[in-house]
Specification:
The structure is a homodimer. By secondary structure, chain A is of the alpha/beta class. The first copy, chain A, has two domains: 3-170, Rossmann fold (3-Layer(aba) Sandwich); 173-352, Dehydroquinate synthase-like, alpha domain (Up-down Bundle). The first copy, chain A, is built from 13 helices and eleven strands. In chain A, the strands form three sheets. Chain A has a seven-stranded mixed β-sheet, sandwiched between helices. A two-stranded antiparallel ribbon of chain A has the order 7-8. Chain A has a two-stranded antiparallel ribbon with strand order 10-11. In chain A, α5 (129-135) packs parallel to α8 (210-230) and α7 (192-206) packs antiparallel against α8 (210-230). The longest helix of chain A is centred in the middle third of the chain and has 21 residues, at 210-230. The mean pLDDT of chain A is 95. The A-B interface holds A 76, 79-80, 83-84, 87-88, 92-94, 114-119, 140, 142, 145-148, 151-155, 233, 320-324 and B 76, 79-80, 83-84, 87-88, 92-94, 114-119, 140, 142, 145-148, 151-155, 233, 320, 322-324. Chains A, B: One of its GO terms (biological process) is aromatic amino acid family biosynthetic process. Chains A, B: Pathway: Metabolic intermediate biosynthesis; chorismate biosynthesis; chorismate from D-erythrose 4-phosphate and phosphoenolpyruvate: step 2/7. Chains A, B: NAD(+) binds at residues 103-107, 127-128, 140, 149, 167-170. Chains A, B: Pfam families: DHQ_synthase, DHQS_C.
Chain lengths: 353, 353
């Protein structure tokens, strides 16, 4: 069964199928006759031919564009190159861009689709766990500036998300774990039963048990879809998805995005956000211990290196979600109620050090 | 009396007032506390100090950014520089970008506002006739690629448009005339009474009679607001605003945007679109003659240089609005009914040559 992200006219399905079936399934939700598939030079090796063949088998005209793998590609310069290619390939307002890859490919392809001729259709075909459970769903697209990540972007919902769980077989283990951090997040912020399921099945997930992965991804997408459906442009509830991300982003920025993967930084961020919630008596010691235990079980870090507090604070106050220099954390209580909390630097210091 | 562009939650006023009153009037429709005013090094000399003083008098924090005047600035590179400045100045999601200037400043500032942190507020303060009657209203924002104009952009409605007619006193005459082409367009596509008023008052407009200009701008904005209110993202009716623009764009592109101003190219485009309508017996010889006469009265060109037909055709088929290489013209009949017509190359050739 597909999931649906309910956004009125902009509703779209999250389709679980083989890459070979993608073309056929897309005929249900995309009217375009021409696709530009964007991928990176890593994913290209594994799946580009398959997706092109699948699209062409349905009569679609397909052109492709390959960018270098890695966060370094998520720039306005790369976006400009892709926009120029779209023009050269003759994409018009009825064409569709397909993002085949992880978060970088999805984000930049979405930005290109959002801005080419003021917006054309696009579909996400995520091939990493992180992209499958998080970045491919919800319509947030962006590129980086040298000074800040995801600072230039748009809300541009895809027409469909195609998830082939088998693509995770080619994913490096560290990348699998980084995706698990977001999976755990959904259990913490929204669903006690799922949290307990994760505790039982974490070894299966790490061992690439396809059925377990499929369930975890579906449940994660379900939760994200429900939240995005209620608050598309993050006026309120959607900010709960930032649980663990305020400190996480600061740690990533502090280490120049080199030391931690996104999920590792978020894992540490979730631990400290939970500690703040514990100190505020919003959650029990038991829930806090369970969170810590599950993160460890996923092979993710729970503590960070000894950075001077001033440097951490500086990054926290310059976060995109900060407001007039005030630090905002997404917290949840024992019953998974979301609280958007302003945290005083002293409170952060007492928890972090 | 202000005009309102009716777009539900995104409705906004077109406010006619002195630049000195802009700050006070903006307190009614902008919640931001911080403005980044973007202008060019030409308009800067005349109005930047005034607008800053007016904003600061209301307690707004104001930062400014000046780009070189001219179409050459409307690039992704300039946009990137502005986005970096916004970040350096500490603009957050609650800040507002104000575009002070003509179409280039309005388009690129709007693009920056549409993409900075996935979209922040912006206001338009147009200082050219073309921007006051056309580009500042309707939310189309964009930058150019070397290969094509306005190809990268978004729909991002301003929170308000501030029109101070007196700014036209510093506008070069050729720029005044280019704006008059769009004013005439509104009379042709939508309002017989306005068309007749223009015929009577064209000399007043050219002589910078402030009352006449104010009326012409208001009526033009009213017509554009009504059309945009019915069709924000150009699914249908809004395309009537492209009257004269299909050939106009081709002529601009053929001459590398150097020979004709936008309005001059549109004027010629309107003549030939009218000729097609005449040949199709959609309009009378009399209406055609009146259109030609009014365009001449405004000091605008009605014929174009002798380009090889193949070159014209090539530009027409690569237009952003072309569809699978088919050429689409916006036409109107005698009763100002809009017809979106596919025009065969033979028909174009017979009219143009």
């Amino acid at each position: 069964m597909d999931l649906i992200v309910e956004l009125g006219k902009r509703s779209y399905p999250i389709i679980f199928c083989d890459i070979d079936e993608a073309g056929q399934r897309l005929t249900e939700c995309v009217k375009s006759k021409k696709f530009m598939v964007i991928t990176d030079d890593n994913v290209e090796k594994y799946y580009l031919k398959d997706i092109c063949r699948s699209l062409e088998s349905q009569g679609y005209e397909v052109v492709t564009s390959v960018i270098p793998a890695g966060e370094e590609s998520k720039t306005m310069e790369t976006a400009k190159g892709l926009l120029q290619q779209a023009l050269k390939y003759g994409l018009d307002r009825t064409s569709c861009i397909a993002a085949l890859g992880g978060g970088v490919v999805g984000d930049i392809s979405g930005f290109v689709a959002a801005t080419y001729m003021r917006g054309i259709d696009f579909v996400q075909i995520p091939t990493t766990l992180l992209a499958q459970v998080d970045s491919s769903v919800g319509g947030k697209v962006a590129v980086n500036l040298p000074e800040a990540k995801n600072i230039v972007g748009a809300f541009h919902q895809p027409r469909a998300v195609i998830v082939d769980v088998k693509t995770l077989k080619t994913l490096p283990e560290r990348e699998l774990k980084t995706g698990l951090a977001e999976v755990i997040k959904y259990g913490v912020i929204r669903d006690k039963g799922f949290f307990q399921w994760l505790d039982i099945h974490m070894e299966d997930l790490l061992a690439l048990d396809m059925e377990a992965l499929k369930y975890a991804i579906k449940r994660s997408c379900e939760i994200k879809a429900e939240i995005v459906g209620q608050d598309e442009t993050e006026q309120g509830l959607r900010a709960v998805l930032n649980f663990g991300h305020t400190l996480g982003h600061a740690l990533e920025a502090l280490t120049d995005y080199k030391k931690y993967t996104h999920g590792e930084a978020v894992a540490i961020g979730m631990v400290y956000a939970s500690k703040i919630a514990l100190n505020r008596k919003m959650i029990s010691q038991q829930f806090y211990d369970e969170i810590l235990k599950l993160i460890k079980k996923a092979g993710l870090p729970t503590v960070f290196d000894d950075f001077p507090f001033e440097e951490v604070l500086n990054k926290l106050t310059s976060d995109k979600k900060a407001y007039n220099g005030r630090i905002i954390f997404a917290l949840v209580d024992e019953n998974r109620n979301f609280i958007k909390a302003e945290i005083h630097p002293d409170e952060i210091k007492s928890v972090l050090y």
